[in-house]
């Protein structure tokens, strides 16, 4: 198990972000303890991943969360008072399954740095590989800081396959028939999937990055998702639930609707609309649009949305699940 920091690792700041920079390497074998913790964090039955007497598999969302956090290896993010930012967009592909105990290596770099609407954004492309096979990739876009005070638009945004698709609205899911598991009926709805996102889930999900790759136990990472003090300093009344929890709920919902397809090339393109504070129930739904052919491959296209208990959208986007 190894964590390799880049040479001359810079402090995390807008000025120090460079396109093409090295975010380091995380290598190791994900153990059952990490799987149990992640299952608790996303509200899933651990038997789904660690079946008694069966083959133990790594939840795909565990890998995606680690892909996002690779910047913690690439930059020094330990300075007091550091305000990092919020996850704004994610383009995720679940390429292949990973078994517990198989070695996996995570690498990545920044591919974009830009300003839109006065906000600073950075985009990092990371991948997880095992035995020469890509397990998962993610293009993650986050704000740098929390304010919109940086002037005119500048820089190029990375490409996104869902950029030209219609915006997803809560009304898309109203008065629609319930989908049948495994069936592709355009207009039918999958879900709802309800999950409680408390401080316990947030700490478990966000507080111990790369726990499986460290040689010794590490203290909880203090940050926006785990510390009331840091959340308050960042302008929030309580810790903020990490946006990728919504992606995990969407993944669980799609897995129930389309068994055995999630880790065979499923794609998600998501926008994280509004911060969600701990102590919130989140409801996730999907609406099957149609069966389409993309680059010679048949997929089911699904509009997805996660809302809070007041009906406000937390995350929206599209999924493409292989047929």
What is the topological layout?
Blueprint: E1 2-4, E2 25-29, H1 32-42, H2 60-68, H3 71-74, E3 87-94, E4 103-116, E5 119-130, E6 133-143, E7 189-197, H4 199-206, H5 228-233, H6 244-257, E8 266-272, E9 280-294, E10 297-307, E11 313-322
DSSP E strands, number:
11
Separate helix tally = 6
Could you tell me the mean pLDDT? 94
- The quaternary structure here is single chain
User: What portion of residues is helical?
Assistant: 10-25%
Encode the helix/strand succession as letters: EEHHHEEEEEHHHEEEE
Contiguous uncertain segments of 5+ residues: none
Structural class: alpha+beta
Using only C-alpha atoms, the radius of gyration works out to 19 Å
Sequence of strands across the biggest β-sheet: 1-2-4-5-6-3-8-11-10-9-7
Shape category: globular
Share of residues in strands: 25-35%
Report on the structure:
- The protein is an alpha+beta fold and 323 residues long.
- The protein has six helices and eleven strands.
- Strands 1-2-4-5-6-3-8-11-10-9-7 form an eleven-stranded antiparallel sheet.
- Helix 1 runs antiparallel to helix 4.
- The longest helix is centred in the C-terminal third of the chain and has 14 residues.
- It is globular, with a radius of gyration of 19 Å.
- It starts with a strand and ends with a strand.
In short:
The chain has helices spanning 32-42, 60-68, 71-74, 199-206, 228-233, 244-257; strands at 2-4, 25-29, 87-94, 103-116, 119-130, 133-143, 189-197, 266-272, 280-294, 297-307, 313-322.
